[in-house]
Amino acid sequence: MFYSLSEVIIIVFKTVEVLIILRILLSWITFPATMGFRGFVRDFTEPILKPFRIALNVAPGIGIDLSPMIALFILYQLEMLVLHLIRLL
Questions:
Q1: pLDDT class of 60 with cuts at 50, 70, 90
Q2: Cβ 66 vs Cβ 56: under 8 Å
């Protein structure tokens, strides 16, 4: 089974988007962040979310972190741009 380049790009972007959404949901549950899957989700999404936190100047411990929502919006726009550029080739 072979995937086209656009299908691979969609799979990659959707996987990252799902992990960001999982991070949001897991942040509502209190248990150690180093536990298995939660630690994996945190470690995978932190490099994506950290630039947005820095740009928004979000301090740790503040109740509302908008960086995941902004990251999801930017990732979606980036996905559409990449797919559009691939279709132009």
A1: low
A2: yes
Q: How many CB atoms within 10 Å of residue 35?
A: 11
Contact 7/1 with Cβ under 8 angstroms? Answer: no
Q: Which residue has the higher pLDDT, 75 or 88?
A: 75
How many helices (H) and strands (E) would you count in the chain?
Answer: 3, 0
What's the chain's average pLDDT?
Answer: 88
- What phi and psi, each to the nearest 5 degrees, are found at residue 86? -65, -40
Residues 19/41, Cβ–Cβ less than 8 Å: yes
As a whole number of angstroms, the distance between CA 73 and CA 89 comes to 25
Q: State pTM to two decimals.
A: 0.84
What residue ranges do the domains of the chain occupy? 5-88
From the CB of residue 34, how many other CB atoms can be counted at a distance below 10 Å? 9
